[in-house]
Specification:
By secondary structure, the protein is mainly α. Helices cover about 50% and strands about 10% of the residues. α1 crosses α2 and α2 crosses α3. It holds the Pfam family HTH_1.
């Protein structure tokens, strides 16, 4: 099995999950899905933009809606005007809190991240 190698051309990124229980978490994928639903007005379009099946996107939305006291996404069925989806006020708040926490952690940890990057093995010579 090959070992993962650092890419010296890539800037490190911070990714995190907030664990609320063993199978209950909010992470970057779910936050991105919420953001894409906000942008597209559609669960299927949001999923497609992330190379995700409609079923997978729908299951994640259902999971997030069950996690919180109030739903994060409201959807309407298709019809003559077509269906759609939108973030609720709770969905907007959850996404805003997650993104703000990510910015705080990235800003606060930038020096430590740079220090870790400086300690990475140099793989530029093809080791």
């Amino acid at each position: 099995m090959t070992q993962p190698q650092p890419d010296p051309t890539e800037d490190p990124r911070l990714r995190f999950r907030i664990l609320f229980g063993p199978d209950c978490y909010l992470g970057p994928g779910k936050a991105d899905l919420l953001e894409r639903i906000r942008e597209t007005g559609s669960i299927s379009a949001a999923g497609r933009s992330m190379s995700m099946s409609y079923k997978r996107a729908w299951l994640l939305v259902e999971e997030m809606n069950r996690m919180f006291r109030d739903p994060l996404v409201e959807s309407t069925r298709g019809g003559s005007k077509g269906g759609g989806a939108r973030l609720t006020a709770t969905g907007e708040a959850v996404l805003d809190h997650y993104r703000a926490l990510h910015r705080i952690m990235t800003d606060a940890g930038s020096n430590r991240i740079a220090a870790l990057k400086a300690m990475l093995a140099d793989m530029s010579d093809g080791k």
